[in-house]
Write a structure and sequence with these properties.
About 45% of the residues lie in helices and about 10% in strands. The protein has 3 helices and 2 strands; from the N terminus they run αααββ.
Length: about 80
């Protein structure tokens, strides 16, 4: 379980972790990220928190949801 810093919201910290995974290549472009259920369990947060974080990552251009297939990492421009 992750230890959350008290001076920042949990969703913001989770956002930063997932963004770093995308930027570092831990989550590869065009590949799916783990499921919402997996992320809920990994981070020990509610489904709504995961959805908020994924929504912000989509809004910021890091992820793209494809109906019926999953959520995928968007390739970044070099």
């Amino acid at each position: 379980m992750i230890e959350w810093a008290p001076d920042e919201t949990v969703w913001q910290q989770m956002y930063d972790i997932l963004r770093e995974r995308i930027e570092s290549g831990a989550y590869q472009p065009r590949n799916p990220i783990p499921s919402i259920t997996h992320l809920e369990q990994e981070f020990g947060v509610a489904r709504g928190t995961v959805r908020k974080v994924l929504g912000k990552l989509k809004e910021d251009g890091y992820l793209r949801a494809i109906s019926g297939k999953g959520t995928f990492v968007v390739p970044r421009a070099e």
